[in-house]
Fold these 2 entries.
Entry 1:
Amino acid sequence: MKLEEHPTVKWFHTAGRSAKALQEPQKLDTEWLRELCLKAGADDVGFVEIDRPSLAMDKQELLEAMPGARTLVSLVFRLNREPIRTVAHSMANLEFGHANKHANDAARRIVTQLQGPGIRALNAPVGFPYEMDRWPGKLWWVCDKRVAEEAGLGRTGWNRLVLHPRFGPFMVLGTMLLNAEMTAYSKPLDYTPCIECKLCIAVCPVGAVKPDGYFDFVSCYTHNYRERLGGFIDWVENIAGSKGVVDYRKRVSERETVSMWQNLSIAPQTRCDRCMAVCPAGEEGIGEFLTDRAGYTQRLLKGPRDRNETVYVVPGSDAEEHVTSHFPHKTAKRVSNGLRPRSIQGFLGGIPIAFQRGRSEGLHASFHFTFTGEEPCEATVVIRDQTIKVHSDHVGTADLRLTADSRTWLGFLAKEKNLLWAIITGKIRVKGPLKLMAAFAKCFPS
Ligand code: SF4
Ligand code: SF4
């Protein structure tokens, strides 16, 4: 059959259809789309042009996900406060689960409605699923937090959550891509809803939230995401590495095994989120804090702080020291968080995130790395005054020089290759005091 005789093609060429289909999308009325999003179930919405300079780092990937995208629509879905505030994880996780489902359903409804008049729209998942074939790199296509801030829907607080002016941290975020422009775009908030009350610092069991604004991502991730992502890898490796049933039970308690079952069978669960629960930011929650600070603190801070619970930490990490010194009644369980770089770029990019600044106390040194083999490159890592900086070439004078075959180095980090063997065979060469090498390694416990 000739293409033009095909029934679908004939249908398309009937009066008006081809012209309509080929029409460039018009500018969409911002108020019209806002109303549509709110009616579909969002609690707030904002609009950002894809060309905004602050999103330059995301643009290429966004266009890869949806060629022709012109606008990002940031969607807010509020969480009920009390179910998140409770120390009962099952109730908090139920609320997260419902909110994520509601958000994904609403975003899908909006996309369906836009598709009718011929607007291409794409909703990114709220929460999971992620692009797991990118592990251990960046798993998501859209940085919801960055888009939400640009859309004027909140600012990042000390707890590293986006705080909405009304809902505070009690929300989940979604993002949609559109191939149309809007008649008006949103602007970032000109103030932060964070009132710097420091409750998130006081409640965090692993000390991830610091008073100077620093956030220890790895320590939070190791504990809060124990049953997701890298924590799951560690669980599987415990099964694989056990000599038998008794050995497995020594490594993983029965409580942890049934908890993992629940995580797999119901939905991904988190173990903490206390920094969200305790946060009074936002118009809806601040009244309780301002009218009775002592009562608020007693109700929301004391319970989680006093709780006997297991806190997951990497051996030798700042988090382990924090649990032991601040919460001696809690049990610090030493685990692997399953994070290990699989490329040199991943290693260098992950250094500032994995850095345990408490472990670096007293260390002031510059390290020159030279990688050979599959991923040749040079880099400098400077650790000084409990800060870290990574340069993508050799900068200044090195206190220690390390030259390594890239595959061997990654294998060593993953505990698959022996350092002594690598040094004897010349795959890894170190020039400088070995105690500096040990001090460097101490900053990155695994
Ligand atoms: S708990 Fe207090 S300091 Fe922490 S983010 Fe919320 S308002 Fe800011
Ligand atoms: S989720 Fe828990 S571990 Fe992570 S920063 Fe918040 S309070 Fe700390």
Entry 2:
Amino acid sequence: MDVESVRRDFPTVRKGMGVYLDSACQSLRPDQVIEAINDYYENYPACGGRSVHSMATRVSLAVDETREALASFFGTDDPDCYVFTKNCTEGLNTCAHGLGLSRGDVVVTTDAEHNSNHVPWLVLQESRGIGRRYSRSGPDGEFDIESFKECMGRDVKAVSVQHCNNVTGCTVPVRDVVEIAHDHGAIVMVDGAQSAPHMPVDLKKLDVDLYCMSIHKMLGPTGMGVMYGKREVLESMDPLLVGGGTVGLSTYDSYNPAPIPDRFEAGLHNYAGIVGTRAAIDYLSRVGMDEIEKWDSILMKRMMGNLEDVRNLHPVGPDDPSRRGSVFSFNIDGLNPHDIAMMVDNTSGVMIRSGMHCAHPFYVDRGLEGSARASTYLYNDFSDIDAFTDAVRHIAEVFGD
Ligand SMILES: Cc1ncc(COP(=O)(O)O)c(C=O)c1O
């Protein structure tokens, strides 16, 4: 991967506007995505799927082409299986509520889920009386397949797991999970917010039933997500929102649902976001997801290697960089994570995240008040990593216990 050439495509990198290490929250966007969005607003700012005039037809075609690009990017054949959402959370809620689980049905998650794949199940436990079980992670936060197997039984109707963790960076062996879950007759939905941006994801090979992701973590526009589902699964699900665009025909007393994906896309859409999604997917495809995964791993190795001997710094999650994807969460004795984040920004212009990263149960369970987190992507280079690690080392030595 030609990192220098990639870096030239990103305006905030080109302009030297600080070192961005918060890509697990939201990625930067390249010129190509910004230009696609501007092109929509300047040249065909109409509505797709409704009007038949020329500008609207151009939008409808662009929407179809984005779905086709997604289907090919994720190794599947049917573009209609990709539903546009406003983020990963909306997709996860649509899946959780749409599966029609009721009293006596059980969902299995892990003990390290993001709130977006945790709170919807708590709500369903309260409102519909569903049961919940979660598999316990190992001490480093690694997924434990034995614990997962112990959760499974004939009452389990759905398994909902993250693919990559946003705190520890650990990856769940989704293919194995799917095999076990399907043997028990359970549907598998996956929170792909942290995996889809950073590794090749072949949804056909994984054989997952539902997979949700955040396009704004994948170089795409803010407020864009995608929910994938197998055709028969989507066709059996109820939408979360209904209204314009979601019905075939309604009368004063009845309606019939539109075919997928329209059934799940109520109201007028974020067309600028959809064309920006296409540009983001094209960009990632051109660079290659294998290359991006390799580069993230090289950066993580350097980051953790640089900080290995800082005695009062403690990673949250594995010590081994090859098991952490692209996120490095850590604490420094005597310092609050928000103070660490503010200090690295103020002293060195390095932007990282701090807090509980929407993984509250995981932190509370381990008696931690949170952590600082640096996360990388394809536009980071060694100079970014070294600026971060120099700043952290200095803070740990001067201000830490
Ligand atoms: C693992 C994980 N799941 C879900 C989400 C929620 O994504 P979104 O903000 O797109 O709803 C995030 C966001 O950081 C995440 O890291």
